[in-house]
Amino acid sequence: RFCLPLVPASLPAMAPGEEIIPALQESWGDFWLFRFFVNAAGYASIVVPGFLLIQYFKRRNYLETGRGICFPVIKSCVFGSEVKSVHQDDGSLPLRAEPTESSTARQVFKLLFCAAGLQASYLTWGVLQERVMTRTYGATETDPGEKFKDSQFLVFMNRILAFTVAGLYCALTKQPRHGAPMYKYSFASLSNILSSWCQYEALKYISFPTQVLAKASKVIPVMMMGKLVSRKSYEYWEYLTAALISVGVSMFLLSSAPNRTVSTVTTFSGIVLLAGYIIFDSFTSNWQDALFTYKMSPVQMMFGVNVFSCLFTVGSLLEQGALLESLRFMARHSEFTAHAVLLSVCSACGQLFIFYTINQFGAAVFTIIMTLRQAFAILLSCLIYGHTVTVVGGLGIAVVFVALFLRVYARSRMKKRSKKLPPGETPVQKV
């Protein structure tokens, strides 16, 4: 009781009284962990009521007792319309198109089209991503400008355009009959939102080349979890390439430019955010693999995930009052508007190119194209934004990408060998 009056009395000695609370709010608002929990609370305000409704309909046995105009919607969202497929050979996944009647020139043209589309989409996306998150807008000789800080709004922009593109594609083309309960997309959607948010936020603390290399080294924690949790066994070349990736990333991270001034705390925040990105992204891919046991196309998956992504992000933005603030930022800076829209267009088009490339040429060709894209992305980032890479760091980048290409080559050889195995023999589990 005696100490409390001393607190406001001491505040003017530290700073002007009316500016302290806004300053504190700004510092808390800029702290990534605080923003993460605020966003998570916004998602929980939608997830928890939805979970309770789903449990209510299941316990009530709504499939037998439900009636009325809402019955088809509730059935589709909670129960689905088909039984899950057990085998992958029944058409649950679209088979890769075999070029039996296509000429060699046509196939080469398709390959060049896919490679050019993927490179253009994701290289532009990477350059714009770094521009939006690390540079200011509206800078003049007297005004330093302002940075855009809300990564969740960028995620919302990306998802709403992807939702629109996937919806139009599904409406204009023939798709398999949808049977998965709609609510199951929400799990992949939530992890996808969080992984994208971590990816954007990480650029505030680490360089874009570091982020790209961290993504390339995702295979290491995947192998460790497979070994410890699932008791999987791996070939010798998988351990060798994982070790090479680890050495290359370590060489890049430990090499320092002479003018480097990044603090340990900043670097630690970036590493934690990248770890969050890898964890959430790994969950997304595994959950989507489980959902593909239903009969659906990749574009239907894209549509279902993005429906919930739009719902979660717009709900959280409205609850925080951040949607209007972001729109005001767009109104103040037309350059940011162009960048955000183009960023979303590249993200949506890139997803369609991914589906088409895998369908036409398989996962191995797609992996090679995307590995080259990562190398080009690092080069572009260094040229445009002036990132300094030492000789040791450059060697580390080279080691990482040599290891990635070795993985692709060895995996393709193993797949060819596994096709020649006699009945009853199975190849070693691979990542």
From TrEMBL:
One of the record's GO cellular component terms: Golgi membrane
Protein localization: Membrane
Name the UniProt record assigns to this protein: Adenosine 3'-phospho 5'-phosphosulfate transporter 1
Membrane topology: Multi-pass membrane protein
Lineage of source species: Eukaryota, Metazoa, Chordata, Craniata, Vertebrata
Spans traversing the lipid bilayer: 33-57, 108-128, 153-172, 236-255, 261-280, 301-318, 338-356, 363-386, 392-410
Gene from which the chain derives: Slc35b2
InterPro entries per record: EmrE-like, SCL35B1-4/HUT1
Keywords: Membrane, Transmembrane, Transmembrane helix, Transport
Molecular functions per Gene Ontology: 3'-phosphoadenosine 5'-phosphosulfate transmembrane transporter activity
The family this protein is said to belong to: Belongs to the nucleotide-sugar transporter family. SLC35B subfamily.
A Pfam match: UAA
Primary subcellular site in the record, as a coarse category: membrane
